[in-house]
Structures are given as structure tokens and as C-alpha cells.
Amino acid sequence: MNNLIQQGEQTPIENSKSGARITRRSFLTITAVAGGLLAVGGFAKLGSGRQPVTVRDERLLMGTVIHLAVVAPDDGQGQAAIEATFSAMERLIGLFDYRRADSALGILNREGELANPPTEFTALLTQAQAISALSDGAFDVTVQPLLDAYRQGETDMTQANQLVDYRRLRVDEEHIRLEQPGMAVILDGLAKGRVIDEAVASLRELGFDRVLVEAGGDMMGLGQRDKGMPWRVGVANPRPATAAGQLLATLDLTDGALATSGDYMNYFVQDFSAHHIIDPRTGHSPTELASVTVMAPTAAEADALSTTFMVLGSAQGMALAAKLPNVEALFVTKTLQQFATSGFPKTTRS
Questions:
Q1: How far apart are CA 168 and CA 305, in angstroms?
Q2: Alpha carbon 255 to chain centroid, angstroms
Q3: Per the confidence metrics, is the pTM higher than 0.70?
Q4: How many CB atoms lie within 10 A of CB 265?
Q5: DSSP symbols for 327-338
Q6: Cα 114 from chain centroid?
């Protein structure tokens, strides 16, 4: 079932260990409504008297289910735009997916270097390095050896931690190199957002200005739904079993991106003390926060910063967010205390 749902409905929010279709960050529910006029040109322009329709589709790509919703003049034009958009997304995924041996990332991890890298791959790693420097290493795409060690049940992270250091990932337009054997890069904290941004850009170029793209919970909305209303988004309760309701709050999303990172999405022990978010500087999962939701201009930014803020904690995370333009965040501690930046939308309890 597509989790882009009609106004007033809600979908259950499931943990990745429960067999949910979305394997990472199944934390947000979206209410999406068919309708509204398309205001731009191209083949998405509505003729006189025609009523728009919302066309939806989903694909399993990059280890997660990706949903697209497009308000279009008719089903045929909407589906054609969706097919073109999935093709654009698949091209990028072919560079970023570590599961593919022939991807740029797969080659880099296997060989330790990559000559003449694709432009998009170099740009994404350059962005990752900038966020690493900005956060003093709280975000680090070379964290893969630590994740592997946790998944293999190892208890001593000393050896794996010696392989993690973004400063030993060398990136330029002609060559990318990992300076130490055994190092490996994972882009899960950034690539899904970049792919979402590509999808929205593709749909915009095709003439669609009311769309919603979601991949494993990371999402971006363009334009508004019917009657000038924004998209309505629910922020999941990271501990629904200990508090009433699946949602902590709901908020409106007009133009922009949202992403959440949480300790409950992929955890190694039942008390959530060890999970898929690792502090690259210590080799252990951060202890303060259960989840962080970030609003940002692009999905790539929101994706990376939600992970970064989880590692930094609420105080340092809020301080960093205050320095970044058009970035807002909601922090939820393991005791369900909430802290929000001054510009984060006022939320309504669900």
C-alpha cells in the first residue's frame, strides 16, 4: 500500500525489525490530496475545464521503497512524468548504491580508489566532507567499518574505529582515494536525500509544480495541495509503546525537505543503546537523543543534518542549526523531552 494517503487517514509507523516495507526511517506519515491547479507550462499545463488527478507510484530502489505523487492533467501525463523521474533517480542510484559492485561507491570501497569519478559522485562526497568539517567529525561517511563490526556482533570497536576518519578520504575531480586499507564509505546518510532532490528537479523540469517525493521517510514537497493548503506531515513518536499515539505532532510542509534520524529505526539491542547511528569519534551510538527531525531547503541537507544532530546532541545540534540558513530542527530525547529551534514550525499534538 502506498503511504501517500488521503487527507484524514493515517498509516501505521513500523520498526525496521518488524518486517516493514520501508527499511530505514519509517518515521513520518504524509497526508496527500489529489487536486489543485498546475500553474506552470510544459506538458503539465491544464486545459480549460479539465480536472487534475493525483498519480502515484512506488519502486523498491536503493534498499527502500520510494514513493512519488504528482498532480497532473490526466493519468497518462502523470505516469509518463513518473517514469522519466524514476529513470533519473535510478541513474544516480547506480553511482551511490554500495550494494552494486559496479557502482562508483562499490568500486571505491573494493579498490580503495576511483579514477575519473562521475561528477555527481564527486559532488556528493565533497558535500559530505564539508558537513564533516562543519560538525568536527560528527558526520563521517567513512563510518562503514564500525557499522560492519556492530552487525557482526563485535564488542571491541578499537580496530574498526581506526579505519574511520573523513580526513583520510581524498576527493578531487580526477581521483578519489581511501588512504588506509580496510576503509569504506557508506552514503546512507546523504544519498537518499540527493536522489529525492534529483526527482523533484526532474519533475519541475517536466512542468509539474505540485509533487511529493518520499524515500524511506526522507521527503520533499513542491508546491501545495488542494485549495492552497500545504502538505501535512506527522512526526512519529520514537517510543509509541510508552506513550499515547503513534505521532508526537503534526506540521505543515509547503516548499522544502524533511528528514528524521532515530535510534528506533535500525537498532542492535532492545534498549536502543546501540543502533545504526554511530558517533565516528567514539565508535559508539550517541546516548541523549531518540530522534531528530530536520527541515532544510534540500533533502540532501536534511538527510545529513538529521544524522549529524543525533550525534551532536540537542545543545550542540541547536547551536549548529542556528548557524545554517533555513535549517530548523526538532530534538526528542530518550525520555521524550522535546527541544526545537526557534524557527521550527509550531506543532499540533496528534
A1: 21
A2: 16
A3: yes
A4: 26
A5: -EEEEEETT--E
A6: 26
